[in-house]
Amino acid sequence: MINNLGSGGAEKLLEESLPLLNKIEGVKVDVLLLTDVKNVFEKNLKEWAININVIPLRKTYSPFNILYIRNFIIKGKYNIVHTHLFPTNYWTSIASKLIFKNKPSFITTEHSTHNRRREKFYFRFLDRLIYSNYS
Question: Which domain of life is it from (predicted)?
């Protein structure tokens, strides 16, 4: 799960790594995007038979994404959910609290050594709370 497939480094990492994962027997890779704006890597991923899903809201910062993420995870019956970037990390962490049966493992990748949210006390506290939901 990631905000979009724009031309950033996290998005490029997905473009390069997901086809490799998808080749592994028994592994099925799907991608959930908060928005489909500037999806420069989508075509390449689809060529590798990777399913690209976009939340219909197409609004990165809408808290309603939480419900779509929850339903997507439940419907997909995933073993592992891997998130990238803010706010996808936040929305998925909260959605994980709304899954009560067959909960997958949740992991996240922070793609920067600097995080402006850590400069504010309340965001440092919130980050600790959010990231405590990940394996």
Answer: Bacteria
